[in-house]
Queue: 3 jobs
Job 1
Amino acid sequence: MATTNDLKNGMVLKLDNDQLWSVVEFQHVKPGKGPAFVRTKLKNVLSGKIVDKTFNAGVKVETATVDRRDMQFSYMDGEYFVFMDMQTYDQLHVSRSAVGDAANFLVEGFTATVATHEGEVLYVELPAAVELTIAETEPGVQGDRSTGGTKPATLETGHQIQVPLFITTGEKIKVDTRTSDYLGRVNS
């Protein structure tokens, strides 16, 4: 248990029938009239839904212990992604639903943060940007654009993104894992 005065960004709370909510933002407000309160923006750990919630100052809230560990993605086992803890070498089977959109950018050997609560995997978090190889893309045709021009490209993971016309098959690029945006070439 903690009070609303102890809230910090990233803290995980157990609210509304044991649902887990991560604190995205919080603000202590002391109006001229009336009691102080805490305005928060909470993100549901499982669904990703964001809600605004207001608490009276000093109210007790239940906190949840979320264990975040850096683990290396090893291989696919049917519908499960297998991650290995680099300290203990324990393997963890994670379902596709828990991996979510991170599956679009996972390649064997990548390190990701795996968050668990009471032994249950909540989510898998990748770094903001990863380096991947272009598996296939059409050659860019000079002159078939008005400005900037992009074309579809398939990454080594099978995920498709938009890249500039000058990118070729086999090139290594940097991709934003949150938006699937092309960020630039990787100089080898």
Note: The chain has a mean pLDDT of 84.
Job 2
Amino acid sequence: MSIISNQSSFTFPLTSATDKASQRQQLRKFIRQQRSALSEQQQQDAEKKIVQAVLDFLQPRAVKHIALYLSFDGEISTKLLIQQLWEKGYHLYLPVLHPFSPGNLLFLAYTSDTPLRKNKFAIDEPILDVTKVLPADQLDIIFTPLVAFDQYKNRLGMGGGFYDRTLENWQQKNFLPVGLAHSCQQVQEIPAEIWDIPLFEILAV
């Protein structure tokens, strides 16, 4: 069951495709501002709450391999969550920009000793090592970042389409895609495009 509350009042009309692209950009800007306005205390509270929300989600499921991400740009910090999942024996993986297939992701094993570097978006990712790659269809859960989401579990990302490509036809694959978000990132309706992939679940605190 989704953990969703405090829906944003930000709404907008849907008209032409050109307008929709503009609306998506406007929405990204608005929600990123909302998220950036959260106080340090609010961020710390959210970091603790998301840990419990994730553990509750995982508890009834036979899960071993989990992909997540290192938080960036006001996203809920995943630092405490990562520590908790390591302690509970889960195998963790981080996304890496695919070096030979632009717009796609690889998932590399992530431990406390994994060396990191900043990618072209200034986001930390593991240094590519093909021996550490796990194919996405061997993951059990992919926790995804997002900018905005709605009650239909649509997600709006940063616009690169990396996760949209990864999650394409996820219903026919082994993993479940789950979004993590602040509750202030919820809007009435995402102006969805045909390539947008609704998630299995969104955990928002």
Note: The longest helix spans residues 17-36.
Job 3
Amino acid sequence: MTSEEKIRSAFENKNWQEIKVTDSWSIFKIMAEFVDGFEKLAKIGPCVSIFGSARTAETNKYYEIAVECGRLLTDRGYGVITGGGPGIMEAGNKGAHMNGGKSVGLNIDLPFEQFHNKYIDHNKLLEFDYFFVRKVMFMKYSQGFIVLPGGMGTMDELFEAITLIQTGKIARFPIVLVGKDYWGGLVDWITNTMLGKEHNIHAEDLNLFRVVDTAEEAAEHIFRFYDKYVLKPNF
């Protein structure tokens, strides 16, 4: 019987003691993922994360933009971190790998669409069961985010980064959204409704991210930021 089946059986039979024991032992699995991630990523050096949909085809213009982002970043000595899967993630790793740069993949075990791509350096692939542990790795070891069109996971990573910077929980780093057509409606809603109508954020919060259309603009925003600020750990 798998761990998941044991937990399901415990709930069905209302065996609360067994559920409590299972929860306690899961702490060690969580700790192991943190330790493995910290040990491996601390040695890699400055990196930029590239986010986007796992479903993006190679023929999509945003796939090509992500490849070019990877190339431009590694030209300047940055490594590239992605979620390790297909689509935009594959494209970012591909650009870094083909250019001889550091190509890192933080893969997550999912039942349907996630499998690690072939462009990740063999010694820079990490596997995760827990989304929240994986997100800590992105936040701690990325000196910038380049966010291409994606789904719920991409939104989750984007808004977590903005929230942590906004609240001062991590040091500020550049966040670039690529694709004005894709992100325009969201940015309009944030500006007109979240800020303008409901006053749920401050006007300066709009400066926490930049919207561009090309790989060159995205990479240049990262480079300009660190021409002004010193590279340092996020937390």
Note: The chain has a mean pLDDT of 91.
